[in-house]
Structures are given as C-alpha cells and as structure tokens.
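Budget justification, computational time. The allocation requested in the original proposal was used primarily to generate structure tokens for proteins on the priority list. As evidence of use, we reproduce two of the resulting records. The first is shown immediately below.
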Amino acid sequence: MKRINDLIMGWVDTSIGRLLHDSPAFPQQFAFAVITSIDSTTDLTGMAALRDIVRRNSQCQFLGGSLVVPANLAGEVAQLFTGFDEIWWFDQAPKAPKPPEASLVAPLNLSTEQLPAWISLWMKESACRLGLGDGIGLNFVTPDETVGRLLDEVPAR
C-alpha cells in the first residue's frame, strides 16, 4: 500500500468477485456501486443479465455504459465477475460517467506502476471513495485510510 497525495493505492492477490464472495459485508461501507467493466466489457448496456437487474429494481440504472446499483445489491452482480472487472464505490449516486481512460483493470499493476492522473482527477470530482480493478490481482485506490488498510490486509486467494 502506498500513498500519493490524497490517495492510498495498492495491489492484492485476489479479485473483485472473490472479495465480494468472501466479505459480503464489505459493500455496507458505501451507498452505491458503479460497475464499469465485466470481463473487459465496458459497455454494459448490452448485457441481458444487467438489463434484467435494471428492469427488476428501480434503484438500478445505466449511466453511460456503466451500471449504478445500491451497494447492497453489488452481490447480485458479483456472480458475473470473472476477471478484468472494475467497480467504483460512492456515498452518493454519481451524476457523470467515468471517463474511459480512467481504468484500474489489468495490465495496470499499482504495486509497480503509477496511478494514471485521470483516475485521481475523476475520483476527486465525483467524490468516489474506492475504485477496484482486477484481471491479474486486484488494484485498489481510495482516499480513505481505513478502507485502504482493510484491502491491504485481504488474504491472497
């Protein structure tokens, strides 16, 4: 785990799906989740399973190509996470979509590489509390030291 300016970031040997499976209470720290990538697919509006979630729950909606869900429903989507997934966590529903260049998905590895500037800018502008991206381990970035410490202590898969 390292700190650069106001953000804490790191890499752990796990995945988003595994994290949500092993720690079902984890989403309770947040109000909303924005899913921006599932198996490298970034336009999620074409996924029938996600369109069904939006139809069944009025609190879920598409924002650009991403899916916004109440954090307590993130587990419902977790079964779709197979790697190269990305999810962002908020206290308030975001109003603007994530810029496509702000990505935490592999091959980026925050244990050895720099955080792209787009990510820190967007996180500050959108009041994002946590970003997770996987594929080859799990990248995380957060302004919240408690969340960063919690993720840094996640057991390897």
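The second record produced under the same allocation is shown here.
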Amino acid sequence: MPRRSNHIHRLKKHKYSTGNTIFFCTLPDCHYKIDSALALGKRSICNICSNEFIMSEYSLKLVRPHCNDCGKVKVKDHEGKDRFIKKITNQILTGVAADSTSSLRSRLDNVTGAADEEDI
C-alpha cells in the first residue's frame, strides 16, 4: 500500500517534449506528481514567500507558482516607461506616491493661487 504524504507540496512545472505538462514537488524525499489541469484548487507552498496558497488559473501558467501577494506588477515610472516592480514594494511606493502627489498639489496651488491674485 502506498504511503500518503502529510505535507503541502511546493510545486514546479515540467513540460515534456510531447507537450504534456505536469507539476512535481520540489521538497526533498517527495515524489508527488500531478497533471497541470488537475492542480487547480490544490494547496501549494509559494515559491517566493513559502506561505500556503491555493492554486488558481493564473498560477497554473507559471513554471514556479507563487501566491497572489508575491510576484510583480507593471507600473509607469516618471518618464512614462513601463516597469515591473514587486507587489510588496508597490505597497511601499503607494505611500510615497501619495505623499509626492499631495506635495505636488500644494506646490501647484501656490503657483496658480499667486497668478490669480496678480491678475486682479
């Protein structure tokens, strides 16, 4: 009788030359394998932060699946170019952006307010 494993797997995708894809566990002494389509909704360990998460349709597309809190997001920098930054860093940058926009707003109000007073 095969022995059942009592842990949550850290998965990685493997693609065979025939085009079939599977996920296999990368933890030591674990030989778990599952077809990619059958991994939807299964519990897994994030390959970035090591927290437990449930596999989604997005994570099935990744070679090393990670949770929704990890990964990167596309933003535009001050020059208008697209850049990818980590989502956790994005939370920090949101606070910095709010501070810089309020600073910019106050400077613009000062400039436009002074121009209105001179015209009268």
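A brief technical remark on that second record: The radius of gyration is 24 Å.
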